[in-house]
Amino acid sequence: MNATLILTFWRQRLMSPFRMAFLLFIVGFPMVVTLVVPQTGFAAAGKVTGIALVFVIGLIGQDMSSGVLQLLFARPVRRWEYVTSRWFAAGSLAALVGVAQVVVVALLMTLRGAAPGAGQTLALIGERALDALGLAAVFVLLSSLVNGVGDIALWIAGQALLAISGMVVQTRGWMTTGRVLGELQAAFNPSIPIGQILNGLAPWAPVCAYLSVIAVCLTLAVMLVNRRELSYASSNG
Asked: Between 165 and 142, where is the model more confident?
């Protein structure tokens, strides 16, 4: 990974007024709910998906459509290095914001006399960080397929198609096919239930599935970016 690419991405995302306005709402609203009704616990914060989407949408596609890739790859930057740097930059930034939100919510709950358990808080922090990195890997792959911010359309359409197919399969009683579709649906939001694993309520299989999704997404994204032909003449003309 390339530290310069990571820092540049962070600066680019954090200086986007639209993204920051949306992020402020996503992060701030659960805090207000917790302050008013502390008994809601961490449920008000929900999943880290909304926070992650602020940073992962258009990960590679926006550079493709804006011509940045032509300029970037004209320099000594390897394409696999670019892909992995994009993944880590988006995932880590979303993870940091998601973890910070959990910490603030926990403090608000404590101040209102509804302090959460340390184990629960740490498990949620770990889950949020891993969820952010997992979703970033998915969007690296989707964004390498389309220009601009078409990756969010692919993400939504893919989940909707799998959900509809799952309902059809369930009515037909095709259990094996249903399990396969369920795994594919989970791949769109890779996660590890740390709290359940620590409590012995979940097997370690989700860990293998999570790591597999990240590995496959990054590998395919690198292959797609390597195969993409860029016209340097058009960018200089």
From this structure: 142
